[in-house]
Amino acid sequence: MSDKGKARRAAYEAQQEKKARRVVNWIFIVLVLLAICYIAYTYMMMGL
Question: Could you give phi then psi for residue 35, rounded to 5 degrees?
Fold first, then answer.
């Protein structure tokens, strides 16, 4: 494989890793927000 191909592959892998981290971060944020909503919901139901 030529050096140009190796560089292109390395750049592609780095870009894919960056995208994967972004997706994992968004999933984590959504789960935290859902947990907060659930806690608020249960707190309101217990208050009634």
Answer: -65, -40
